[in-house]
Amino acid sequence: MFGETGEPAEDKPATATEPIRAEDIHISYGGVTAAEGVDLHVEPGEFVSLLGPSGSGKTSMLRAIAGFVKPDRGRVLIGGRDITRLAPRFRNFGMVFQRYALFPNMTVRDNVAFGLRARSVGHNEIRAHVDAALDVVGLEDLGRRYPAQLSGGQQQRVALARAIVIRPTLLLMDEPLGALDLRLRQQLQVEIRRLQRELAISTIYVTHDQEEAFSMSDRVVVMSRARVSAAGSPDDLIYRPSSRFAATFVGNNTLLDVRQTTGNGVVQMDRLPGQSRPFRLSGPPHESTRTLLVVLRPDQIHCDRRSRPGAVAGHVVERRFTGLEHLVTIRTADRVMSTLDRGLGLRVGDEVFLTWDPAGVHVIEEDADGNVVGAPGGQRAQSVDQEPTGSTVPGLPGERR
Fold it and tell me: Which has the higher per-residue pLDDT, 1 or 366?
């Protein structure tokens, strides 16, 4: 328990082996809601990223966990102990900001030592800890320089060293690499992840960059409109998104709504453009399911210059090189679909024909109000010539067959 002054009522410091939880967090600024019933947990040594567009509530959640913002409702716990009212200086959390927040009148060593001095650590111990932290981030020879004498990447390493030197229970990072160029950002992504693993520091990392979140994280929490929309491993979010927003926000997926099925759960072909053959769900639909949301990744949509049975016609409206492959955007009569140019040499304006095989395609179930229902992680589609994994699947509940 903690006293009304925000100081610990008992001398029991948190350790890096304790889980951190935020439960039912509500935050508002005037009439603007920044977090609405958000739950978040971080296991010991876990790297969790908060991913979402601007204004989704990522930074507000980070600041509430850090203690800079007091939630209107909900609580923050370390190992089961409520620290919601505990002042930030007593939480032993390390914080790294996008703009570094270094003291310009202090040397690198003094910046790194700041948190230790605030904790009244002895001089010899401070010197040893600072030496070790600077060595970890590769700045052992720059301790006497001032921030203005460093590059952006070096300044961010100083901020990181300052955060880890206090041996924090939790490391909080708010878009720390957003101001850096691509090459340096990628280099620091690798370094931060390496340090986090070596030091086994539980970490919450805020970013709007999908590649950054997926390359660094054990788990990613996708936020939208002050709520958690989806959460899971990078593989889960890429291959098995659990919500409509996550499927739209992550990657370059094409989403198709299915509102009717034939008997035995077989989806009508004429409802889905480009579908090569009928399919059924891998398991029974939920009793509240009214819509099936078919999620197609670009690699699952096949593009050809010649028509095929079931193909939908369209024209290339964009061709973008992503570094390893060419992503092509196709406009059909009623939608936009994304696929890959597999050696066709497509150009803007070319007519093409799209098809997709339903076998193994990810499907999300929604009720009449658009809420996700059904099995966690959604279902897989199975072509009708495949044996279903369970019993015969009926059509969507409440539908006429």
Answer: 366
**Tokens matching residue 211:** 């590649």
User: Per residue, what are the HEC states of the chain?
Assistant: CECCCCCECCCCCCCCCCCEEEEEEEEEECCEEEEEEEEEEECCCCEEEEECCCCCCHHHHHHHHHCCCCCCEEEEEECCEECCCCCHHHCCEEEECCCCCCCCCCCHHHHHHHHHHHCCCCHHHHHHHHHHHHHHCCCCCCCCCCHHHCCHHHHHHHHHHHHHCCCCCEEEEECCCCCCCHHHHHHHHHHHHHHHHHHCCEEEEEECCHHHHHHHCCEEEEEECCEEEEEECHHHHHHCCCCHHHHHHCCCCEEEEECCECHHHCECHHHCCCECCCEEECCCCCCCCCEEEEEECHHHEEEECCCCCCCEEEEEEEEEECCCCEEEEEECCCCEEEEECCCCCCCCCCEEEEEECCCCCEEEEECCCCCEECCCCCEEEEECCCCCCCCCCCCCCCCCC
| Interatomic CA distance for residues 39 and 26, integer angstroms | 10
Predicted local distance difference test score (pLDDT) of residue 393: 39
Question: What's at 227, amino acid-wise?
Answer: R
Report yes or no on whether pTM surpasses 0.70.
Answer: yes
Higher-confidence residue of 177 and 36: namely 36
Strand partners, 36: 26
How much of the chain, in percent, has pLDDT values that exceed 90?
62
pLDDT per residue over 176-187, tens digit each?
888 788 888 888
